[in-house]
Amino acid sequence: METWSHHLCLGLLLLLLLSAECLGAEGRLAHKLFRDLFANYTSALRPVADTDQTLNVTLEVTLSQIIDMDERNQVLTLYLWIRQEWTDAYLQWDPNTYGGLDSIRIPSILVWRPDIVLYNKADAQPSASASTNVVVRHDGAVRWDAPAITRSSCRVDVSAFPFDAQRCGLTFGSWTHGGHQLDVRPRGAAASLADFVENVEWRVLGMPARRRVLTYGCCSEPYPDVTFTLLLRRRAAAYVCNLLLPCVLISLLAPLAFHLPADSGEKVSLGVTVLLALTVFQLLLAESMPPAESVPLIGKYYMATMTMVTFSTALTILIMNLHYCGPSARPVPAWARVLLLGHLARGLCVRERGEPCGQPRPPEPVPSPQLPAGPPAGPCHEPHCLCRQEALLHHVSTIASTFRSHRAAQRRREDWKRLARVMDRFFLGIFFSMALVMSLLVLVQAL
């Protein structure tokens, strides 16, 4: 048993020595390969055997995170992983010569790199993707993976805010090499979203890639580029809860001013209070919304609601004037009596106390004065007679006339008050329907 354990320990020690020797040999071969490759290598020239040959560069972009979308300045900040692949004619070797060494990793500043930049860059900061290594294979294939934080210009359209969708393009291309010297092509039909970190405000719908060949006014040769279009849709839940839903509730509360009794004295106060509340929410919306020529959808909704509340308050003031018509008011016109107090009142079920809905109350008969019964006309036989016919008839006629005037003035006031109630009920239905329809049209955009 001891002999077997001794042999096992010797075998393990020999294996460790051989592994260390192999690792050391691999390191020496890598150093030798590095010295041989870069003995006469320069990173200043395009690595092609023939100067007329076009160098093909494959570009692949992986979206990792949306850092910021600045709508006010129209700048999109992204965190990307950019992979570029090309073939270097001067970085090739035979793996059998170097112990089967297939690839090496070296600093990217030592090799030639394509000058592919972001055309629509929105700042003057240099790119931070120059410190990573490149992977060089024995056949000359060079792969350069580099993370980068890009700030690109993006035209933001807020006409449908907060239910808007944005299209932001990132255009990559060579800055100095034309299409005859360097050709850039995308790998795949779209950027990769496998490692994307979800954003709390924006939902990514895709990032398709498209290659273009353009000729600019400065140069005669064409310049190819690759444009990755980031498709975004805003998450509107926070804006619906904080800005839209309170406005909907307030807009539905505003028409209820027509339902308040005129004697309460709060009809105009409710309209003014609602208008002030909408103004406060409008100021909050203006702070969170970028300035633009087109008015956003929620801004149009606020403007329409404030206009509706303003008109409802003005109509409330006019209806209050109808309600408080004095004794000297004129009678209700005949057309208004027939159309409003007749048909419209029955249709809206506006009735007096004790009056059945849909049936007008019959007019009350005006009592006619009754002359008191007395002795027949003839000469009065008493010296102080109290029943003189002419004086009694004059006084009774005066009392009856005063009573009729009072009843007519009271009837006019009641007619104007009833007309005010009919107008209140009519405008309550109109403005409540308008507020409900506008709210539904805006809220349906969130579905």
Automatic annotation (TrEMBL):
Species of provenance: Ictidomys tridecemlineatus
Protein keywords: Calcium, Calcium channel, Calcium transport, Cell membrane, Disulfide bond, Glycoprotein, Ion channel, Ion transport, Ligand-gated ion channel, Membrane, Receptor, Signal, Synapse, Transmembrane, Transmembrane helix, Transport
Domain Neurotransmitter-gated ion-channel transmembrane stretches: 243-356
Gene Ontology biological-process annotations: detection of mechanical stimulus involved in sensory perception of sound; inner ear morphogenesis; membrane depolarization; negative regulation of ERK1 and ERK2 cascade; positive regulation of cytosolic calcium ion concentration; response to auditory stimulus; synaptic transmission, cholinergic
Entry keyword annotation includes GTP-binding: no
Protein name: Neuronal acetylcholine receptor subunit alpha-10
Topology of the protein relative to the lipid bilayer: Multi-pass membrane protein
Family recorded in the similarity comment: Belongs to the ligand-gated ion channel (TC 1.A.9) family. Acetylcholine receptor (TC 1.A.9.1) subfamily. Alpha-10/CHRNA10 sub-subfamily.
